[in-house]
């Protein structure tokens, strides 16, 4: 029996740009591959994917974790109705904790996404 997979969606801004896609385009090839591999894992596991690959941060916002050498990359996301994973924003981690500003940005994008309804 095949497992239902989750659909990974890049959140898009009103101008059509996709913050996570744009961020991923700045990564070197190895880090890009690690992020893509982790996205493949989350498509299969959904909310069951845990550390070291994924972690719940705050109020339904999660992060995908990728590390290569001393470089640490995070991509924030949330789950949406219909087995959808919405990737909101990404950054290179420079501090011990995920910056609150990044979490707040993910929440803002989530509220905006929800307000669109199923028009997309």
Q: How would you characterize this protein structure?
A:
With 120 residues, this protein is α+β, with helices and mostly antiparallel strands. The chain has helices at residues 19-24, 29-45, 100-116, and strands at residues 7-10, 54-58, 61-68, 71-80, 84-92. Strands 1-5-4-3-2 form a 5-stranded mixed sheet. It starts with 6 loop residues before the first strand and ends with a helix. The mean pLDDT is 93.
Which terms summarize this structure?
120 residues; alpha+beta; 5-stranded mixed β-sheet; 3 helices; 5 strands; globular
Q: Give the low-pLDDT segments.
A: none
Count of β-strands: 5
- Gross morphology is globular
Structure classification: alpha+beta
How do the SSEs run, as a string of H and E?
EHHEEEEH
Radius of gyration: 14 Å
- Count of DSSP helices? 3
Integer average pLDDT: 93
- N- to C-terminal distance: 30 Å
Strand residue percentage: 25-35%
Strand line-up in the sheet with most strands: 1-5-4-3-2
The biggest sheet, with number of strands, parallel, antiparallel or mixed sense and barrel status, is: 5 strands, mixed
Approximate helicity band: 25-40%
